[in-house]
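As agreed, record passed on underneath.
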Amino acid sequence: MANNLAGTVRTVWEKGLQAINRKDFQGMRITDAKFSNWKGLGTIKFGKQAKTTGGALNNYFDAITKSPIVTTNESFTPDIIRYTAIEVSLDDTVHSYIDPKGQYLVDTKEYFASEREKAIFSEAYARADNIFDDGDLKTATNTGAGNPFVFSEANSYEVLVGIRTKLTKALVPNHNRWLILWPDETGELLLSDRFAKSTVEAEKRLNTGIVAVATGMEIIESNNLIDLAGVRHCLAGQGKPVSFGWVIAPKVFVSSIDENTEKFTGVIKATEKFGVKVFDQGAQNLMDVQVKTA
């Protein structure tokens, strides 16, 4: 009796695709994520409450003005679809010394995670209310304000302090702050005297993928930041300002060789559908850190 491999593989693979544990992908750290399959629904709603403001009194006999509680259901429709697919022949399945199906699982997990992260970072920098550029440094590196700055070993700690200061002036809460850097910027930072001699921080990097906690910010490294027209858009912010929604979580479909009536091959394909959105409250807590590329 022939083995019904397709059904077994489908269950195992879907479970594997749901577990995104690779520390290389950091985009999900900054998202308010909704992971689910919403059958028949195309829109995801995120409930928001407007901030309460106060006023001044001349004395306690004056009348006060009460602030209304304003709530909104901000929503978006996920419209990003990604897929992978391979064709496997009888030889591939039976005689090959490699495991094409297993490698497909690994590659698909990485591809999906990478695509999510690119979408998250792209939306985040485009919607950031705050910008940190060459004009925010004490000594300009690229003709001043309005231009990206050159990140170097010499000015790396000044950049961290400058980002911290600008976030504070923009009234961004000082807890749960983070800064995401490209590996080139991370390398310059680690060469500075502030970090080069820290054995404790080096051990933390190896275990968690987090570079360091400095000037009140968790510093994270990613390969998926947006690099566009000579500007690398690193990101700083607080909390989870990006909303992420899955409408279709990763799904795997397997057609076996027995099911193919035309040739001795089977097809394995996977897909997912998701969306990313930064609402106004999230944009207030985001900073686009504009670094000049070499």
About this structure: Residues 180 and 220 are 5 Å apart (CA to CA). The longest helix spans residues 100-127. Confidence is low (pLDDT under 50) at residues 1-23.
